[in-house]
Amino acid sequence: MTSKYIKISNPTPHVLLLELNRQPVNAFNTEFWKEYGRTFDALSTHPDDIRVVVLSSAFPKVFSAGIDFQELINLGSNNTTDPARRALLVRNDILDIQHAVSAPERCPIPVIAAAHGLVIGLGIDIISACDVRYTASDAKFSIKEVDMGLAADAGTLGYLQNITGNKSLVHELAYTARMFSSDEAEKLGLVSRVVQGGRDAVVAAALQLAIDIASKSPVAVSGTKRLLLHARDHSVADNLEYTATWNSAALQAMDLQQSVKAGMAKSKESPKFLPLRPKL
């Protein structure tokens, strides 16, 4: 895989590290967010045995400064003066951005966000769509959109309502755009762990978690992700029925027998599972 604005590396078996890399502050323009979405969508059919993705920034002091200001200006301007047609064009642009930002959710394998430095506006949209979120203690966050004259529209408002039970704090941060710390992000439930230090420390912690997850059955992990996402958007009864249908196929994988045998033998080594998509 190659990318203009994303550094892609394979630091350990089965783990992919994606680092946002658009100078100077990872501000997203059209080319960047389209590339971001394509990169994650490509993982659905990628031939390599990738089981976990870690998402971070190549720049120590900033994860992302959000959307590029020029892009924001262009979003509300087009050649038509008819309000209905202009609204249709703008709506399509917003839907395209939303589709790209939510790509980690569509990715069949877990995505771990390792946030650090400034995480502004669209940066929060991006990490909100990831499965697990770690942050460095040096991180500063802001749901910045109201200061730009608009409501956040790429995922933050929708995701945060499901991520946290602290609705009051979500409203406060979204209405005021004030900066909040890594500790407050943990209190909110936006992140599950605060790692002392900066970029290097949080990326190391995220990679260690990725190694642990990658040692599990890829069929079980991918299925768990799918079932968790289904549970978020459906009733318990619907999810139980969906889970029964899903596992009626998944339980036929060799992974089940391998895992049970390893457990019974009290083996300290994880079984060697086949790739999720073995080469035919």
Can I get a quick summary?
With 280 residues, the chain is of the alpha/beta class. 48% of the residues lie in helices and 17% in strands.
What are the secondary-structure elements, in order, as H or E?
EEEHEEEHHHEEHEEHHEHEHHHH
Question: Main sheet, how many strands, which sense, barrel?
Answer: 6 strands, mixed
**Number of DSSP strands?**
12
Structural class: alpha/beta
Terminal Cα span: 21 Å
Oligomer: single chain
Low-pLDDT stretches are none
Mean pLDDT: 93
Instruction: Tell me the fraction of residues in β-strands, as a range.
Output: 15-25%
**Tally of contiguous helical segments:** 12
Give, in spatial order, the strands making up the sheet with the most strands: 1-2-4-7-9-12
User: What's the helical proportion of residues?
Assistant: 40-55%
What does the overall shape look like?
A: globular
Rg of Cα set: 20 Å
General description of the model:
There is one protein chain. This protein starts with 5 loop residues before the first strand and ends in a 16-residue tail after the last helix. By secondary structure, it is α/β, with parallel strands linked by helices. Helix 1 (30-42) crosses helix 3 (83-101) and helix 10 runs antiparallel to helix 11 (236-250). Strands 1-2-4-7-9-12 form a six-stranded mixed beta sheet, sandwiched between helices. A four-stranded mixed beta sheet has the order 5-8-10-11. 48% of the residues lie in helices and 17% in strands. The model has no long low-confidence stretch (mean pLDDT 93). Strand 1 (6-12) and strand 2 (15-20) form a beta hairpin. It has helices at residues 30-42, 69-75, 83-101, 103-106, 122-128, 156-163, 167-176, 182-188, 199-214, 218-233, 236-250, 254-264, and strands spanning 6-12, 15-20, 27-28, 52-57, 62-64, 66-67, 111-115, 118-120, 132-136, 140-142, 180-181, 193-195.
